[in-house]
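User: Good morning. I'm curious how FE2/S2 (inorganic) cluster would be positioned relative to this chain. Could you predict the structure with it bound?
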Amino acid sequence: MPAFTFVLNGETVTVDAPSDTAMLWVLRDMLGVTGPKYGCGVGVCRACTSHLDGDAFNPCVTDVADCAGRTVTTIEGLADGDTLHPVQQAWLDGDVAQCGYCQPGQIMTAVALLASNPNPTDADIDEIENICRCGTYVRVREAIKRVAASS
Ligand code: FES
Ligand code: FES
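Assistant: Good morning! Here's the predicted structure, ligand included:
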């Protein structure tokens, strides 16, 4: 079985897996990194959203072979030691989560958005496609704006 090496949350890891294994299963089942959630498996719900070389991506529809030699960040890699990422802190401050299932993906999407667009408009935020069955969209929007206003 081929081996694939990549950087995951600051550490170099190597996994043996068929090259077309979805990265979501590599993360969750092989590496025990369960922040990226399984919702649809077809790139629609965005519950699995993580970062590949700093850009939001959906590991449920990304082969492990496509991550080789690259940098993968999940929600587990966002905080700086005991210090939460400002977006995580804004989520806490705003009590954004309800059941929480979609929230790692929501946060990773928000971090990527704010990295490329530090002061997003409502229209920019409307382009976020992460689904929340609990309907936390208003609080997600408020938290993103709070981070933008404080940066
Ligand atoms: S599980 Fe990846 S987009 Fe739905
Ligand atoms: S907080 Fe429950 S699905 Fe979003």
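The first helix runs from residue 23 to 30. The first strand starts at residue 3 and ends at 8.
Let me know if you'd like a different ligand tried.
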